[in-house]
Amino acid sequence: MARRARASRDRNTAPAGAPASPFIQRRLPFFDVLDEEKLVKLEAQVDWIFEDIGIAFRDDPEALRIWREAGARIDGDIVRADAQWIRALCAKAPCEFTQLARNRERSVTIGGNNQVFAPIYGAPFVRDLKGGRRYGDMESFEKLVKLTYMHPNLHHGGFVICEPCDVPVSKRHFDMLFAHMTLSDKPHLGAITEMSRAQDSVDMAEIVFGKEVMDNNCVIMGNVNTNSPLLVDKVVTEAVRTYSARGQGMIVVPFILTGAMGPVSTAASVAQAMAEAMMVCAFTQLVRPGAPFVLGNFLSSMSLKSGAPTFGMPEPVVSNYAIGQLARRAGLPLRCGGSLTASKIEDAQAAYESADSMHSTMLAGANFVLHSAGWMEGGLCTGFEKLIMDADRLGSYQKVLSHGLDTSDEAFARDAYAEVEPGGHFLGSAHTMRNYQTAFYEPKLSDSENVESWEEGGSKNMRQRAYERWNQMLNEYQAPPLDDAVKEELSGYVARRKEEIPDAWY
Amino acid sequence: MARRARASRDRNTAPAGAPASPFIQRRLPFFDVLDEEKLVKLEAQVDWIFEDIGIAFRDDPEALRIWREAGARIDGDIVRADAQWIRALCAKAPCEFTQLARNRERSVTIGGNNQVFAPIYGAPFVRDLKGGRRYGDMESFEKLVKLTYMHPNLHHGGFVICEPCDVPVSKRHFDMLFAHMTLSDKPHLGAITEMSRAQDSVDMAEIVFGKEVMDNNCVIMGNVNTNSPLLVDKVVTEAVRTYSARGQGMIVVPFILTGAMGPVSTAASVAQAMAEAMMVCAFTQLVRPGAPFVLGNFLSSMSLKSGAPTFGMPEPVVSNYAIGQLARRAGLPLRCGGSLTASKIEDAQAAYESADSMHSTMLAGANFVLHSAGWMEGGLCTGFEKLIMDADRLGSYQKVLSHGLDTSDEAFARDAYAEVEPGGHFLGSAHTMRNYQTAFYEPKLSDSENVESWEEGGSKNMRQRAYERWNQMLNEYQAPPLDDAVKEELSGYVARRKEEIPDAWY
Fold it and tell me: What predicted TM-score, i.e. pTM, was given to this entire model?
């Protein structure tokens, strides 16, 4: 209690690294766009995929063995099953669960009314105002981990904030895990690209949390894509057989570029995504009943001119609202959306698209939002300024969600009307004095001065202010405390495993 | 029918001036954020203002006479009245009504499930990429009227797209009206700053539409602000006694900078705005029962550092959702929100703030959205590129609202699943061929190419693309047809009245 009270008091002085809140507890109602008839139609399509179309589980005989023994119908590598049975298996996954952070004050609850924001994942390039666009490297990665740790509006560290392309593919997961575990104390994800890398992630998490804590809690999660359409490869099933088997979380995300990996229709693509993710959810529950699971969705639209994916467009906006409702009906935590854009730079396009994408993500009730900050260029590039600009806007969404509309007696301010004449002003009223300090979200990067003051300040655009801010944050960075013995054991593990594994660059 | 069919067919070839649709008929459900208990509390506060606090009607003895004769309680210039009576008067205003355009294919229906987008109103400055920031003038005004006329995502011309500061204040309404009436055939607003100017607007509209059409239809509207808090001056009541008396529309908008013109609380400010606007609505119905009325709301948050208004922030976002619900309960068409920002330039701040402001405006069900495009610098400046960038995004909102999620059999694409293997793609499927051309909103200004193609194209940011687009549009502009006799009569009216009135610059 004492520690929580201090964290809360610290909010106004905003020390580096102190989150405004470890995650969002939503008070705003959900936005339900579909009526019962549409919901039933969508669910019927999902069930039709389970029963008639099926989903291929490829390159992992153990996965097919698990399905066969459980009673699914196997035809080659296509798995079909009774829809009611799949839904019953999914119902074994928790509606909400907590992922512990090594600093327990930063643990996040995922599912239900809770919403958690995490940064971009997987970009091979980085970009900043002075350094320009370049391949990601470990130096950039560490800076991005520090910034994510320090930013009060990011609740979760994510994992591959950029690809550290200067480290061999076969070994970079060690350095990424070590960075998250030592430079930050927020929760984070682990590797999934290969089964041994997933196992390394789980093993290193056990060093940090200890066996007993890990036996009884989710402390790390893996985030994987299905190979849409309707294909689940061994990257997915091996990650499940590592993370889920150990009681750790799995986030399973069909990435559907509508018209390519799914039909050129939002309804069909949303249903297909539900079917793919729920089929893997059922698989996780065969591997370990009760293992934490997050139903993922990543649906993008397409440019007719080039076939390139587009973001922040009306079709994915509507799909966010629809999938939110379907996930709640299925009782599964949801990952969808993010601050997504196709723009190459930090211009108005980037911001319009990111805001529309994220606004719908927020209202849809997405419980875990990867890519909530830093995404550029269709996900190919992590922007340092973009990370800080997006994260500044996340504070606004956080306030919308966690406050809604206060209708307490104090909010109605009846005493103020006794003080103020018609045409007068409330600036000095007692009610204003009592409430002004907490009345408004104070963004760090929006300039609301008049044009003269703004010009006197150097006519800086938002990107320039963001550049200054992230540099200032890094100057003020202080590593969170970590037990020396734990740090040594992590270092030892990394050194030993790096010895055992040959360098590989693919 | 034939003309409507042609307009619809033309949509894909996008001729200048052809709107995608004359207005939005919403299929997406409304987003209701307030439960019954909160709604009742807010309405009780509104009623308390009607009955106990009252609203001052100042400087217009005729307005007080009308209230007194109708039975309101008058104390000095404060009008108080039974809440049930005020609500009964408001119920005489139509839930929805049509404003005719001189081209009837562009007439807009305001209220109910319909949403209408109009550009910025009232900025003294303009800004474009080559010309920089400068006072608005008639040349800019005419260009902005042409662009609004040509843009398919703007349904309504608004009125003061910028202030033409090179024309005396006492005469500029003539030139603005003449520009809207001759350069565009979309519906527009009229002047309100002085009673004779309102009358000129109504008289010029009568020249365009004829007396009989005007007697039986809304063909022009006035948009006025109350003097919040709780003060209605003669600008408002004289406009009502001109527009409403003639059966024309009134939009009445409390502008409340929360903490200054209202208590530092969203709930109190929303209730105050409802009370002010509904009180004027009741007044319009005393002047002429059944006169079209739009309940306005313009609520902004404040920077604690400077006291400057801020936009796109969480408090006005929530207020948009709340006022939408309250307006629907009151059965009154709503104006709120817009693409609002405090940014001085067309940077990421401008776009983030505009998008969050407009996304909530869209979902809130705002029936008439002034400032939906072109707003910069807290409303002090109309941006040429901003107008075109915002309007491009309006097309996305239009699709979200008017399409929602299609769950027809065709949308579920079951035949496509027979064609496509697991891990394959839907690009060439028969379903894709049948549907791809209408599947996605195609923005004009978003670049989704890869970084190499984008660099080859000159690495242009969105603002540069917008600059090229509005210049191209102006090159392609063709005035809509207008009867010579009408144009002559308008010119004659303007010439005669300009003779009668002395130049005045305030």
Answer: 0.96
Beta-strand ranges (E) seen in B180-276 are 189-190, 221-226, 231-232, 249-257
Six-digit token string for B232: 């209605």
Transcribe A430-481 into DSSP letters: HHHHHHHHHHS---SS---S-HHHHHHTT---HHHHHHHHHHHHHHH--PPP
Total domains, chain B:
1
Inform me whether the C-beta atom of residue B76 falls under 8 Å from chain A C-beta atoms.
Answer: no
Tell me the shortest Cα–Cα distance from A324 to chain B, in angstroms: 13
Q: Give me B347's structure tokens.
A: 């940077």
Residue B455 within any structural domain of the chain: yes
**B20-68 pLDDT, tens digit each:** 689 999 999 999 999 999 999 999 999 999 999 999 999 999 999 999 9
Domain that holds residue B494: 21-404+441-506
Is residue A13 one of the residues assigned to a domain?
Answer: no
Reported as a single tens digit per residue, the pLDDT across B173-205 is 999 999 999 999 999 999 999 999 999 999 999
Helix (H), strand (E) at residue A135: strand A132-135
Domain assignment of residue B10, yes or no: no
CATH, residue B498:
3.20.20.480
Of B457, B504, B489, B500, residue with least CA distance to B178: B489
ipTM for the complex? 0.95
Residues from chain B contacting residue A55 (CB–CB below 8 Å): 422
Cβ contacts of B319 on chain A, cutoff 8 Å: 405
Kindly state whether residue B244 falls inside one of the protein's structural domains. Answer: yes
Our CA-based measurement puts residue B199 at a distance from the nearest CA of chain A, in whole angstroms, of 27
CA distance B447 to chain A (A): 6
**Is the pLDDT reported for residue B2 higher than 80?**
no
Residue B168, token pair as written in the block = 């005396």
